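Lecture notes, structural biology module. Today: joint structure prediction for complexes of two components.
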Amino acid sequence: MQFLANPTRFLRIANAVLPYVWAITVALFAVGLYGALVTAPPDYQQGETVRIMYVHVPAAWMALFVYTVMALASAVAAIFRHPLADVAAKTAAPIGAVFCFLSLATGSLWGKPMWGAWWVWDARLTSMFVLMLLYIGYMAIWAAIEEPHRAAMVARVVALVGFINIPIVKFSVDWWNSLHQPASVFRMGGPTIAGPMLWPLLVMGLAYALLFLALHLTAMRAEIAARKIRQIQIAEIGDR
Amino acid sequence: MDFSANHIGFVIASYALSVVFLASLVITTLGRDRKLRAEAERLDTQRKKARA
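The predicted structure, tokenised, for the full assembly:
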């Protein structure tokens, strides 16, 4: 990780890998959507509504994963003073917030025909809603505090304290009596989904993960440029 | 996919919402990256010229 601490080296690597990451992402989305919309069979109970799973579940996985990345980056920034760790955490937040919103919105669109309600305050949905609030709070800190070092310190605390919500989201369906179904892919004993439905879900999951990687590297590159602009402007004021 | 199935509107709405939000995120991120890198490059060149 120390190898990537140098922004110049990071930019060189990011510039080299980004075109390939974007290309693989587009290819995975094409294959995943073909599987999700064409080859996957309708569910015997849910019918065609089951196809919402292929956009809802990867968005939920990524909402949890991106917050974990933010918490890890914040820990690295706090412990090792890694120069790019705060940049990584800050730029991951808006991407994670979009994934979290999509997971809530598509879940609601599935809930109405299947449960008969757009929303219920059960453990999984409530903890996911708290995750959305954590994303919004984290971004609000960066927007509200003008001095970057102070903003980074406060944001690190929020990211690390908020991380306690991640296992709560994951295990909420096991710990409490929930309307939401339990884990059916990442569980002890293997997936409970039939193969023709499982592979498009896994490909879509991979496509969402690579989309995050491409967006995150691009956003980090932009943030490094924004900090360079700020440095030049401060230096110009000093020269006058 | 059977477009005459029950609740198909919910499926279409889910995919449409995902496409709109993810495409907007991609466009915004790429646009910000392009704009800021060009601005940083311009200021850097300007500063080097002023020093020379």
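Point to remember: The radius of gyration of chain B is 22 Å.
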